[in-house]
Design a protein that fits this description.
503 residues; alpha/beta; Rossmann fold; DNA Cyclobutane Dipyrimidine Photolyase, subunit A, domain 3; 2 domains; 6-stranded mixed β-sheet; 21 helices; globular; Rossmann-like_a/b/a_fold
């Protein structure tokens, strides 16, 4: 067995990028390579622990690599998607924190940011000389799936490692997706309890020193390093800027989590989880900046409701994406048959630019969109209403195609993905796509008339939120500006109350 030197808790998280069995490491090569894609942390990172142990077993150095692209594969570029400064900055802030932490583990974290004058095939070059490559599990989601395939095509033995789920998705059958969230929780309950009760692995350290870094490597230790990278010309979407007060990285993730727990967030979770002005953890969790097992363990001690939502909704989306690679972008595969005729001809829709700036004419939806544009975050409770409204505007992206049930449905999905992933810090991950697809009927049951259940944006107002409140809250979080006096007391209570974090 190729990974027999590893503890069972790491072996169960591994699968090959290609084929049915893990390929053995090559007999020759200069190093082991770990490609960090979706697990931006050094503590409790199964990919890193696997790579460190593999390097020590093979008696070669470990090189860690993070590549931030400035363009997307065809599936995303087709709908007008480009990497944004916002998403890039969030990850760069994490990488700046991680470089010294990984150096302290005896390795090096090489960073390559694609930009004008610097688009070397960094991953392929290092993979071609590696005895083994470890890549964070991509779950069939772009751009990570294409990245892993490029690495594999160099001939390097390539292992994928699940760092996102309490119960590794590769160990679960398709039957676990039957019966909605409750069915998934029943199917995974015993496995989850066993893993939450297990003793965490002691962190490993590389025994062989890494070589000097290549010339394209970015040292992010300087105070202005992130700003300098963002200022360099590139193909990124620079119109979607950095959220200065929401910093990326494990320290910020843990600080937000611990503050919420200390403020009785878990104890009051069942009662407060639907507060539409809540802070959320999804950006940090989806980027792997905090260990989901740690969050689930903390939750299991206090709130079963938290564990059921955190693990159930998130991990069922990971499993579905893993078993249906790329299907999250294809309405004909993702939307159930009963929901495929749900869209009809509509009045002229607002164009994409109007929707992006929150000028649809629906006051509650526009408030949600402005909050998302400003802060990069939107609580799950309001995002469901925000997302349910978008399919009606599918005409904005039909682009002259004949309006058939199939083209309308695909246009609706394209618009959902574009508006979400362009602005949301938690976009581009299976749980985020699960929420978007739910708006079209994915893993749901038919409502009246055999179509997905309606969720008008007015439901946001039933919790005491008025149009403009979300935008004001976003401005407080983003730039520290004061809310209007007449809403001061209400906004202060929103900001100080225990918050839900699953959104």
């Amino acid at each position: 067995m190729a990974a027999q030197f590893l503890p069972a808790s790491l072996q169960e998280r591994l699968r090959p990028q290609h084929g049915a069995t893990l390929p053995a490491p090559r007999d020759a090569g200069a190093h082991v390579l770990y490609c960090m894609r979706t697990a931006y942390r050094s503590a409790a990172n199964p990919s890193l622990e696997t790579a460190l142990r593999a390097a020590n077993e093979l008696r070669v150095p470990l090189l860690c690599l993070a590549v931030l692209e400035d363009s997307f594969p065809a599936g995303l570029s087709r709908i007008g998607m480009r990497p944004t400064d916002r998403a890039t900055a969030f990850r760069l802030e994490a990488l700046r924190e991680l470089q010294p932490e990984i150096a302290a583990r005896g390795s090096v974290l090489l960073v390559h940011v694609e930009r004008d004058g610097s688009r070397q095939a960094a991953a392929q070059s290092l993979a071609a000389r590696a005895r083994l490559v470890i890549v964070d599990e991509h779950f069939g989601v772009e751009p990570h799936m294409s990245f892993a395939d490029k690495v594999r095509r160099t001939g390097a033995p390539t292992w994928l490692c699940d760092c996102a789920c309490t119960v590794p998705s590769r160990t679960l059958p398709a039957q676990a997706l039957v019966g909605g969230n409750a069915g998934f929780l029943r199917a995974t309950r015993d496995a989850r309890r066993a893993r939450l009760a297990a003793t965490p692995l002691a962190p490993a350290r590389a025994s062989a020193a890494p070589p000097p870094p290549p010339t394209w490597h970015l040292d992010l230790s300087g105070e202005a390093a992130v700003d300098e990278v963002l200022a360099a010309p590139s193909r990124r979407d620079t119109s979607v800027g950095r959220v200065a007060r929401t910093r990326g990285g494990p320290r910020a993730a843990v600080a937000r989590w611990e503050a919420w727990v200390a403020n009785d967030g878990l104890a009051g979770y069942a009662k407060r989880r639907n507060d539409p002005l809540d802070v959320c953890m999804s950006a940090y969790v989806n980027c792997g900046m905090i260990d989901p097992l740690r969050m689930a363990r903390d939750g299991a001690r206090v709130s079963e409701k938290f564990v059921s939502e955190f693990c159930g909704f998130r991990e069922s989306a990971h499993l579905w994406c893993l078993r249906n690679p790329g299907a999250y972008l294809d309405a004909s595969r993702a939307v159930p048959a009963w929901a495929r005729n749900q869209l009809r001809a509509t009045d002229p829709a607002p164009d994409v630019e109007a929707l992006a700036r929150g000028a649809s004419g629906d006051a509650y939806w526009d408030d949600c969109q402005k909050c998302l544009v400003l802060s990069g975050e939107l609580h799950n409770n309001v995002r469901m209403a925000w997302g349910k409204a978008i399919p009606a505007w599918h005409g904005a992206v039909l682009n002259g195609q004949e309006a058939t049930p199939a083209t309308r449905l695909q246009a609706a999905l394209d618009l959902l993905v574009r508006l979400n992933d362009t602005y949301a810090l938690d976009g581009g991950a299976p749980p985020s796509y699960g929420g978007l697809l739910w708006c079209l009927g994915w893993r749901d049951r038919p409502g009246a008339g055999g179509c997905p259940k309606l969720r008008p944006t007015s439901v946001i107002g039933r919790r005491g939120v008025k149009p403009g409140d979300l935008e004001r809250l976003a401005r407080v979080r983003v730039d520290g500006s004061e809310p209007a006096k007449k809403r001061q007391r209400t906004m202060e209570s929103f900001l100080s109350s225990p918050k839900s974090v699953v959104g």
